[in-house]
Amino acid sequence: MGTNGSTMLEPLRQGLPPVDPTAVSGSASCALPARFDAVRGARTFTRSTLSQWGLDDRFDDVALVVSELVTNALRHALPEDARCPDAEPEPPVRLHLMRWSTRLVCAVRDPSEDRPGGAFSPERTEENFDLESGRGLFLVDSYSDSWGWHPLAGRLTGKVVWALFLLQD
Q1: Kindly report the CA angle at 154 between 150 and 159, in degrees rounded to 5?
Q2: What pTM did the predictor assign?
Q3: pLDDT, greater one: 163 or 3
Q4: 63-102, pLDDT tens digit by residue?
Q5: Are 58 and 104 in contact (CB under 8 A)?
Q6: CB–CB of 40/63 below 8 Å?
Q7: What is the side-by-side strand order in the sheet with 146-151?
Q8: CA pair distance 79, 126, nearest whole angstrom
């Protein structure tokens, strides 16, 4: 096992349905600063990338999910000192978009090893379903075809939270 950038997403690939590696038609990623205006940047990056891939018609659903995943990473996964400018040499949150012929995956990497969602779990109740973090992941669940998360592999710490969208041929 190596520790290069492709290894970081290996658990993500393992958690998805099998795909033909030759069918991968595009991938793009961007680092996001530890500021809440990073959500706007993530949406702009998503619009540009989907447009390049001819997937403008999927922007609304994908951008909503990207916004929720990035917001959750910024709100719950960053230590307080990481929200200060210049706290780290590299922004700690990264958005990845990957496209195969019949599917699109949005993945957000963050430095926290905590399980995402808190309130959004299979055993949620009416009482905790109203919590803000639960609503965000409820939207991710509603607008994507599936979602999940994996701890990062190798020397990297943190996790990747991903959402899968099926594409029409």
Answers
A1: 25
A2: 0.74
A3: 163
A4: 999 999 999 898 866 665 544 454 445 568 999 999 988 8
A5: yes
A6: no
A7: 26-32, 93-99, 103-110, 159-166, 146-151
A8: 30
Give the pLDDT of residue 80.
59
* Structure confidence at residue 147 (pLDDT): 93
Q: How far apart are the first and last CA of the chain?
A: 35
Tell me the C-alpha distance between 5 and 87, whole Å.
Answer: 22
At which residue do the structure tokens 């307080």 appear? 80
Greater pLDDT, 68 or 24: 68
Residue found by looking up tokens 């809440």 in the block: 36
The neighbour count for residue 38, using CB atoms within 10 Å, is 21
Integer Cα distance of 31 and 108 in angstroms: 10
Residue with tokens 């994507």: 144
Largest CA distance in the chain: 46
